Amino acid sequence: MLGNHSSATEFYLLGFPGSRELHHILFAIFFFFYSVTLMGNTVIIVIVCVDRRLQSPMYFFLGHLSALEILVTTIIVPVMLWGLLLPGMQTISLAACVIQLFLYLSLGTTEFALLGAMAVDRYVAVCNPLRYDIIMNSRTCIWVVIMSWVFGFLFQIWPVYATFQLTFCKSNVVNNFFCDRGQLLKLSCNNTLFIEFILFLMAVFVLFGSLIPTIISYSYIISTILKIPSASGRRKAFSTCASHFTCVVIGYGSCLFLYVKPKQTQAADYNRVVSLMVSVVTPFLNPFIFTLRNDKVIEALRDGAKHWCQLFRN
């Protein structure tokens, strides 16, 4: 515990409850998830860059989405893995906590902006295919990606600044495996009702600001697909959107439970589970979601594997 008039200069991450044996099992599981996440998303980035069949807006956005997934999970998981190996609580400095929280929230905001842009891209591809190349030209795509990254980082400056302007005098033990904002607010001896309400409104703006274009886009997409007379045509049209739609459901679903709530300081166990979904499970699943149901990506992977096999034989 800290004195009534002092603020924490470092924090202790409580991590996961349980025995050392359980921690070793969790380490093995999360290390496997992290390794597959890095390899899967890196492979997507490489094939999008080198394969000419994937030189289109959808795969350009997918490459940036994969880069975001690598960064999000890298900000959280190595710290979590190190904590699972330590015999006691993990120490993190105030500066490191600020940087971790800012990058985590900024990259998450960028990802939602990009998912909204990808929904609009799918709408243009399905509902206005003749003008697709004109509307979604390379200049437009580059500007969309740049604005997504800039918006994500600028938008989170004030929330993180306001969070760490609070005085943390109740304790310096964070009941999570990373610097979770909800748990940090619990440690403050200030009245956090106003800042929690503002953070709630900002979370609503980010999530629903990108979710509404996604819902509108998919409403038109579904309406257009249902008008296609042949079953094979409908199946082909929907297959171009299925991966993105699955990613949207998983990503928005978990973050709606985590951030869009008036009371930020809710149960630690609940926050821990949903945080794992956002930072570990979703980045792990995305490479499979975007490859297993995508014929072009599968063909590119198959050709790439054949090329590497030929190189090794020679």
Q: How would you describe this structure to a colleague?
A:
With 314 residues, this protein is mainly alpha-helical. 75% of the residues lie in helices and 3% in strands. The chain is built from 11 helices and 3 strands, in the order βααβααααβααααα. It has a 3-stranded mixed beta sheet with strand order 2-1-3. Helix 3 (94-127) runs antiparallel to helix 9. The radius of gyration is 22 Å and the shape is globular. The model has no long low-confidence stretch (mean pLDDT 85).
Write the layout of secondary structure elements.
Elements: E1 10-13, H1 20-50, H2 57-85, E2 90-93, H3 94-127, H4 132-135, H5 138-155, H6 157-163, E3 173-174, H7 181-187, H8 193-226, H9 231-259, H10 268-292, H11 295-313
Parallel strand pairs: 1-3
Antiparallel strand pairs: 1-2
Q: Helix content range of the residues, please?
A: over 70%
Distance between the termini: 65 Å
Main sheet characteristics: 3 strands, mixed
In terms of quaternary structure, the protein is single chain
Query: Using DSSP, what is the number of strands?
Result: 3
| Unreliable residue stretches | none
Radius of gyration from CA coordinates: 22 Å
User: Which outline best applies?
Assistant: globular
Strand content: under 5%
Structural class of the secondary structure composition?
mainly alpha
Q: How are the strands ordered across the major sheet?
A: 2-1-3
Give the structure's gist in a few sentences.
It comes from Panthera leo. Belongs to the G-protein coupled receptor 1 family. The protein is mainly alpha-helical and 314 residues long.
